[in-house]
Amino acid sequence: MRVLSGIKPTGKLTLGNYIGALKNFPNFQNEGETFIFIADLHALTMPIDPEFLRENSKIIASFYLAAGLDPKKCTIFRQSRVSEHSELAIILQNYLYMGELSRMTQFKEKSQNMNQNAIGLGLFAYPVLMAADILLYDSDVVPVGEDQTQHVELARDLVKRFNNHYGEILKMPEAKIGKVGKRIMSLSDPSKKMSKSDPKGDIFLLDDMKTIRKKIMSAVTDSGSEVIYDIENKPGIANLLTIYAAIKNITVEEAETTFAGYRYGDFKKAIADAVIEEIEPFQNRFYTFYNDPQTEKILEEGEAKASVIARVVLQRVQQAVGLR
Ligand code: ATP
Ligand code: LTN
Q1: 76, 64 in Cβ contact below 8 A?
Q2: For a surface tag, which of 187, 189, 216, 244 has the fewest beta carbons within 10 Å of its beta carbon?
Q3: Which residues are the active-site residues?
């Protein structure tokens, strides 16, 4: 079994990224051949400062290692350094259609406030490159948060279309979403996804513990007093219960039972304790890898390894379409 996923170095990673993606990645490396990359080409789809992009790529690599990814068991690399990603994307762009790309939620959300005459082609074609990322490794499983499943579905449509035309060339991938915490909401507005491009109300993974506690204690809840899991009427409380359940690897029902009869203040304090207990040692591991020159070597080795595997699939596709 092949597993592949990535995170784009667009902003400061949040607790949502940790729960929805980072925390789950290491579980896969014992089950199959795992490829985890830094989606730096995808980061260029929105305006980004070059220095920040470079720095953030290094930060994400260190997060991967801190989360427990082991370079002996898993290939970790920068997308842009494995040029096969770009080469395959250029071919695959011909098998996804403008109609379907324009219906992607992420595209609609990211482009709605932009000058409609200045939307980059890369943002529009984002799912093409993402399909190339996935298909380049004959991936079976793609662990992602809920917001990315639409892109994986599109990659699946592409496989059907392509294979119908050329025979069994591309492998059919499947998205894998964590049971708990597939969509962590913003602490300041629980109707919105916690996102790294939204500076308000999010817990960033490199926030100091005092800030994390403060953000959780001031999370938006409601005027009631019962700690129950009710997404419709108590989205703030439901979100905090989800965060707790995901961190403790329990179900939201179990979390609900744990906090039955708690007052909001005590409840929030317990959530803050749990988040800090998880994130503090994670941060310490992060800084160790961040300051270790070996981290760059790990990426370079990963890139060499990834390229060997990617080249095989790329050549298979080139052959199928008549480029070889
Ligand atoms: P941006 O705000 O720049 O679009 P993002 O915070 O959504 O970024 P991505 O790089 O798109 O982050 O996501 C990395 C991974 O984290 C993806 O698998 C995504 O599904 C997951 N993820 C992101 N936000 C959340 C969230 N709030 N809850 C759960 N998973 C999330
Ligand atoms: N779009 C993803 C990042 C990403 C990805 C991928 C995830 C780029 N290519 C391939 C899984 C598989 C995101 O926003 N997290």
Answers
A1: yes
A2: 189
A3: 110, 193, 196
**Looking at residue 145, what is its pLDDT?**
84
Class of domain 209-287: mainly alpha
d(CA 78, CA 299): 7
Architecture of the domain whose range is 2-181+293-321? 3-Layer(aba) Sandwich (3.40)
SS3 35: strand
User: Which ligand 2 atom sits closest to the C-alpha of 143?
Assistant: 11
Q: Which of 271, 246, 228 is nearest to 180 (CA)?
A: 246
User: How far is Cα 129 from Cα 88, in angstroms, rounded to an integer?
Assistant: 8
Site residues for ligand 2, CB cut-off 6 Å: 4-8, 39, 42, 130, 133-134, 142, 144, 148
Digit-coded pLDDT (tens) for 12-25: 899 999 998 899 99
Reported as a single tens digit per residue, the pLDDT across 240-274 is: 999 999 999 999 999 999 999 999 999 999 999 99
The model's pTM: 0.93
